[in-house]
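To fix ideas, we close by showing one paired sequence and structure record:
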Amino acid sequence: MEFYHLRSFVAVAQTGNLTQAAKRLYSTPPAISAHIKSLEEELATLLFIRSSKGMALTEKGQLLLKKAQVTLDSAVDLVNLAADNQHEIIGSFRLGNNLSVEQVKLAELAINIQENCPGISLAIHQQSSGKTLQDIRSQQLDGGYIFGDIPDDFIGVSVQDQKITTVAPLTFDTSKIFTVSDLSQQPWIMMGEYCPFDELLKSKLGNNIPSVLKSSDDGTRLALVKNNFGLSFITLDEARVAEKSKIVQIIPTLDFTTPLHFVVAKNRIKEPVIKALLQEIRILWQLTD
């Protein structure tokens, strides 16, 4: 059984399509098809059901997928164990992000990784801080940016302080807002998914905030505010851009500053890919150890 046969098998199982699997492996559909055929002949069993819609695993194929993935992961671990430096490490890093590409320098990070760790690929997941923590714990993500405190089962670095403000529709009459209590009577678009901003908002305005909608995406919340659905928290940088574009207006009454952290699970800190990414984050933000 050849290693590249297993790699092709896993790619087809995950994509359900020869063409997509070939693109992922920088190969061709006929080559991938030949690998699958050789594997089926060697095991004397059908691994996929072919149809016009694609390729679906048989029961035997589903059993093999679990073992094949373990085998491939173990092979990658062996390579990384033998690697002398970051340039030789291979793997993927799934990164949770709660801000814009520009705000967390994602383009710069990608360029640095291509230069310093060419064997590591990045997969970006746009989501809230709470969801990122949840997904790192379940190993659906490998690390990410969060607001709020760093939990005890995580290790992280503080990369910058972010100023947070309140945005309102252009039609909102700010002359009627004199106190924090006045804001507590207004409808709010909250973040949801365990976002620390929601808890901070409740600490300032109480637990009975009229919440009409929830979205962890800043762009979505801006659009909802623009269309008069309510008020919302957003970073001051994004709020200023939106205000300049005459999309929303800023209400500074509840303004606060919060640290932005990059975190990974404490129990995975020794994994080569994670160690390499943490080092790249420190370089990106010019942090000292």
In short: The chain has a mean pLDDT of 88. DSSP finds eleven helices and ten strands in the chain. The first strand starts at residue 48 and ends at 51. The CA atoms of residues 181 and 205 lie 7 Å apart.
